[in-house]
Every structure is written in structure tokens, then in C-alpha cells.
Specification:
single chain, little secondary structure, 4-stranded mixed β-sheet, 9% helix, globular
Length: 213
């Protein structure tokens, strides 16, 4: 299942499919091929920040606490596609029933309850938190995660099974247009995944937050 990936030298945010590709005419699509440091540097330049995992999930839920998806508990309410995901058997059958075989322009699907577009689907999004397999327990409440978890130390984010030099990992959220029910159901607010900070792909982007304090 992993052999569908292809390394393309020269792919970057201006040429997301590699040399010969372009973002001309695609300016409304989310930026991709951005490493964590790239995203963090842009956020600083813009006077903003990257969200924590908890901030991202709060925003993605749009006020529907406990719902499976950003819009409720039914994946396609009344047959309507609510996010840019993969339809068909991944990776060989791309039915594009939602109208998009790849990335979609931002705003192609309904916003969540807070007016935010593409919180799930389309492209994964970096968060500022280091990845660990689970959240730390809440103080004096061993059954639960903290109300507003802040992630772990960088030293706890490494993959012990990774061969060669160790690379720290951040939490990415939201899933992408490559997420399918038979392979990756991470188009849910609660879903999360580790991503090496030095790696870029054609389905990972980011969004910024502006904090009042």
C-alpha cells in the first residue's frame, strides 16, 4: 500500500508536482510542500503563529463538541460531500465524486460552525505541538487528558523504530484529499498523525492563528 508514493526532485511550493508544474491558476488552493520550519517562519513574518493541537481541534469542531466530524455525525448528510476526501478504493480508484481528484480551492466545501473552511480534508495542517502516541494525563485525573494539552517535549517525539538519523515529529491534523475509508479516516477533528519536521509533501499545508495575548 505504501508504494504509491513517488519522490520527485525539485518539487516545492511553487512547483508542487515537480519541475514543469506550476501554481499559476491555482492560487486559491492551499499551499503545500511546506516544512514545519517554513510554516513557522511564515507565521512569524505574518505576525501570527501556528496553532497548538488543542487550538486546532477546538476550531475544527466549530462548536459541535463530541461530534465525529466537523459538521456532525453523518459523513455525507443528505448525500452532500462536506470535505475534500478520497472516494473509491485507495490508492487505485479515484472516483472524485466530490468533484475534485486532487486539491480543491479553499472554500469549495461548507465552513464549520466558526466559519472556517477546510478544517478537514484537502490538505493536512501543521500544528506547533511535538507528537507523542497519546496525551499526558490531566493532573489529579488519571482517566483523562488535560483540558488544553500542550504536547510533549521534543525528545519524546522521535520514532524509536526510525532507522538512521532521528528526526523530530510534529502533530499534523485534518487529513487530506488522499484520505479514504479503506486507508485513512483522519478527516475527523479528533484524528492526528506524526510528521517529520524536515519533510514536505503535496498534501501537507498549514494555517495560522492570531492570539490576543
Amino acid at each position: 500500500m505504501r508504494d504509491w508514493w513517488e519522490y520527485v526532485p525539485g518539487a516545492n511550493w511553487r512547483r508542487p508536482e515537480g519541475p514543469g508544474s506550476s501554481i499559476v491558476g491555482r492560487e486559491s488552493e492551499p499551499v503545500v510542500h511546506v516544512s514545519f520550519e517554513d510554516a513557522a517562519a511564515y507565521a512569524v513574518w505574518a505576525g501570527k503563529n501556528l496553532p497548538s493541537e488543542a487550538e486546532w481541534e477546538f476550531a475544527a469542531r466549530g462548536g459541535l463538541e463530541g461530534a465525529e466530524y466537523c459538521w456532525g455525525d453523518e459523513f455525507t448528510p443528505d448525500g452532500r460531500w462536506m470535505a475534500n476526501t478520497w472516494q473509491g478504493e485507495f490508492p487505485w480508484q479515484n472516483q472524485a465524486l466530490d468533484g475534485f481528484p486532487g486539491r480543491a480551492p479553499v472554500g469549495s466545501f461548507p465552513a464549520d460552525g466558526y466559519g472556517l473552511f477546510d478544517m478537514v480534508g484537502n490538505v493536512w495542517q501543521w500544528t506547533k505541538d511535538w507528537y507523542a502516541a497519546g496525551h499526558a494525563q490531566a493532573p489529579n485525573n488519571p482517566c483523562c487528558a488535560p483540558l488544553n494539552p500542550r504536547g510533549v517535549a521534543e525528545t519524546q517525539s522521535y520514532d524509536p523504530a526510525q532507522p538512521g538519523p532521528r528526526v523530530a515529529r510534529k502533530v499534523i491534523k485534518g487529513g487530506s484529499y488522499l484520505c479514504a475509508p479503506n486507508y485513512c479516516q483522519r478527516y475527523r477533528p479528533a484524528a492526528r498523525y506524526p510528521q517529520a519536521v524536515d519533510t514536505t509533501t503535496s498534501h501537507i499545508g498549514f494555517r495560522c492563528v492570531l492570539r490576543s495575548t
